[in-house]
Amino acid sequence: MTLENVHKRLLDQLKTGVVLLDSNLRLLYINIAAEALLEISDKKARHLFIGDIITNAEEDIGEMQTAMVKNSSFTKRKAELNVMRDKTIFVDYTLSPFEYEGESKALMEINSLEHSQRISREESLNSAHATTRELVRGLAHEIKNPLGGIRGAAQLLSNEIAAGELTDYTNVIIEEADRLHNLVDRMVGSRKPLELREINIHEVLERVRQLVSAEVSGDSIRLAYDYDPSIPAIYADSEQLIQAMLNLVRNAVQSLSSPDVDHGLGEILLRSRIVRNTTIGSRFHRLAAGIEVIDNGPGIPEDMIDTIFYPMISGRADGTGLGLPITHGIVNQHHGMIEVNSKAGKTKFTVVIPFGNHH
To answer: In a 3-state reduction of DSSP, which class is residue 124?
Structure first.
């Protein structure tokens, strides 16, 4: 392997976008992270002027040209750049001019702010989850002990009294104790290890679609799908993933059934895509499976968007607020991540699960 190849491989491992420019700000090379950010391949970007890739950026390009003339580097924080396909990216970037074999060149380093914000959001969510889980486990233990005593006493009482009106009361106590017991179990979440095997993600999504279609038949809700058939198999526990996706789709159904919906037809879209160059936790994955659940409901209230994955947070009066934390837990066990974007008329949950999860 030549040294040039080694350098290229090293640059492609970086999570920072790296762009090499000539003295006229034409692109000589971009690494994989920059390809993902700028939505263009290294091959297509070669010899293009930077202004052809970052559009409507006269001010930024002016600053770059000044930096080249003065041969001094500069950093721009929280820049909003328009790139290919009308995409806007929020980045910090640094331009560092240098001389190589008598010619002026510049190295541009681009760091995505969304990426770093997402990582810190994920980390804080995971640590909050760990704390909440320990708290809930301790609480569950404290609740289950007296609950067992209440149920046992009601059982004994019903055996002592003659059948009739009073057994109705003891039955209510037993049933409610069982209901509370089940609720506590659901709060604690499954501690069962995952049964990982190679599965087709679309079989999971189709199962979810069948189940929910039966539940919403007669309602004015349409379940649409848009699958990418080229997605390879993933290592996962299909039962657990069905549960995770079912919670997301049922949530969408409930939001479409809310009185805030002002359109006749509710639509839920299940979409699968390959996600390239993504970081989950601290691990970089070149390829991952992305599953989106999109609904055209009223959206998630802004004051709830940061806490919806916490247990007992529910937007509905009758909700237990356990569906999303359970989904988050299952996705986490698969070394994946879950994100949400919501505005009135469009809420999108995205689940990303890496390929090759043999561990």
So the answer is: helix
Q: How far apart are CA 110 and CA 16, in angstroms?
A: 6
335 in the same domain as 203: yes
Based on the structure, what is the number of domains in the chain? 3
pLDDT tens profile 200-225: 999 999 999 999 988 887 677 889 99
Say how far apart CA 238 and CA 197 lie, in whole Å: 8
Amino acid at the residue 179: R
- Is 359 within a domain? no
* 134 within 8 A of 128, measured Cβ to Cβ: no
User: Do 225 and 347 have their domain in common?
Assistant: yes
Whether residue 101 lies inside any domain: the answer is yes
- Is the distance from CB of 53 to CB of 27 less than 8 angstroms? yes
Alpha helices in 102-200 (DSSP H): 113-160, 165-188
- Residue 268 contacts by C-beta under 8 Å, 6 or more apart in sequence? 212, 221, 222, 223, 224, 249, 252, 253, 256, 293, 294, 295
Segments forming the whole domain that contains residue 21: 3-112
Give the E-state strand segments of the chain in sequence order. Answer: 17-22, 27-30, 74-83, 87-100, 103-112, 197-199, 221-226, 234-236, 266-280, 283-295, 337-343, 346-354
pTM above 0.90, yes or no: no
pLDDT at residue 317 in the model: 43
Helix (H, G, I), strand (E, B) or coil at 172: helix
DSSP lists the bridge partners of residue 284 as 279
Q: Do 262 and 309 fall within a single domain?
A: yes
User: Residues 136-162: pLDDT tens digits?
Assistant: 777 777 888 888 899 999 988 888 887
Q: Specify the residue for token string 């924080």.
A: 77
Residue-wise burial string across 316-327, b where 16 or more C-beta atoms lie within 10 A, e elsewhere: eeeeebbbbbbb
For 110-129, give one letter per residue: b (16+ CB within 10 A) or e.
bbbeebeebbeebeebeeeb
Residue entry with tokens 């002016």: 62
Sign of CA dihedral 289, 293, 299, 305: negative
